[in-house]
Specification:
Elements (H helix, E strand, L loop, with lengths): L1 E4 L3 E8 L5 E8 L1 H11 L4 E4 L1 E3 L2 H12 L2 E2 L4 E3 L5 E7 L2 E7 L4 H4 L14 E5 L8 H12 L4 E5 L10 H12 L4 E5 H7 L6 H9 L5 E5 L5 E5 L4 E4 L12 H15 L5 H5 L3 H19 L14
Parallel strand pairs: 1-4, 1-10, 2-8, 4-6, 5-7, 10-11, 11-12, 12-13
Antiparallel strand pairs: 2-3, 8-9, 13-14, 14-15
Helix pairs in contact: 1-8, 8-10
């Protein structure tokens, strides 16, 4: 099983009302939640570790997980509200305002987390869950305890406006990157992480020195580049799509990468650190393929495997 560890929330997506004014429609979401849903729909054995509210929105999140074949045994149901992300769209590009004080996702603590099952062979971390306490410390503890014998992928999915304490956040990410095997960042994430370096290739090379064996940098419509510890640099083009919005695009890309690595038998601790250029290229290309489906429809709505044939 692949265990995705991080937030599940509600994306409030703008939509015109019958009266013409703009309203917001609740859609299930969250970076890590979306990746788990994407994996389940692609046929991977996947579970979610997260704090999810007992409110009506929490029920909506659980229903989507179950519909998408995502195991919920590691979910902690908490008597707190659901995190809300109000989405703002400009030319299809999404930005977010988050409301998460005292929410179920934000307040999950280490004592809420059950021991990770022996059948879990890979862990995925990321999203806003790594930016604020106490949930960020909880997930860092999970990685510390459980990551040494399992493949680890991290996508920080950095939202600068959401970060309360930049120094603490940077230190936490650096410590987690040191334990990761695969790190996926957007070109904007990478520029934020390393503003002192002007070149994307130099930034990616620097990130490789921090611990991962495989770094992926997504560049929106310009596709993605992959960097291996061996020094090889790869690239894949973005798939053509009629873009409705970019909500969940990067998360779906992650699900495609993880699903393909798993399908190829590469998603073990030692094996993923020795990933070949051909395997890495195939994983990135599949990630681009599934992400193209998501951007062609509203909200984070990853494709089912049968939609890709």
């Amino acid at each position: 099983m692949i265990l995705c560890c991080g937030e599940a929330l509600i994306d409030m997506i703008p939509e015109a009302t019958v009266g013409g004014a703009e309203g917001f429609v609740p859609h299930v979401g969250g970076a890590v939640f979306n990746t788990a849903v994407g994996l389940g729909r692609l046929g991977a054995d996947v579970g979610l570790l997260s704090g999810i509210s007992e409110d009506r929105f929490g029920a909506q999140l659980i229903a989507r997980l179950e519909q998408s074949k995502v195991a919920t045994g590691a979910v902690a149901r908490l008597d707190r509200p659901t995190t809300m992300a109000f989405v703002h769209l400009e030319d299809g590009h999404a930005t977010y305002d988050f409301y998460d004080e005292n929410t179920a996702g934000r307040m999950i603590a280490s004592e809420d987390v059950a021991p990770v099952s022996d059948n879990v062979r890979a862990l995925f971390f990321g999203g806003i869950s790594l930016a604020v306490e106490p949930c960020a410390d909880t997930y860092a503890d999970v990685l510390e305890r459980e990551g040494q014998s399992r493949a680890v992928m991290i996508d920080p999915n950095i939202r600068p406006g959401f970060i309360r304490d930049e120094a603490t956040y940077r230190a936490r990410l650096a410590k987690m990157f040191a334990k990761a095997d695969v790190v996926k960042v957007s070109d904007e994430d990478l520029a934020w992480l390393m503003p002192e370096l002007a070149d994307m290739d130099a930034r990616a090379a620097q990130l490789l020195t921090q611990g991962p064996a495989f770094v992926i940098v997504t560049c929106g419509g310009d596709g993605a580049r992959g960097y291996l510890a061996s020094g090889e640099v790869l690239s894949v083009a973005a798939e053509k799509a009629n873009v409705v919005d970019t909500v969940g695009a990067g998360d779906t890309f992650n699900s495609g990468v993880l699903a393909k690595l798993s399908e190829m038998g590469v998603l073990g601790k030692d094996r993923v650190r020795a990933v070949t250029a051909a395997e890495a290229q195939a994983a990135m290309a599949f990630g681009a393929k599934v992400a193209a489906v998501t951007v062609a429809r509203a909200g984070a709505n990853p494709p089912w495997a049968e939609e890709l044939s």
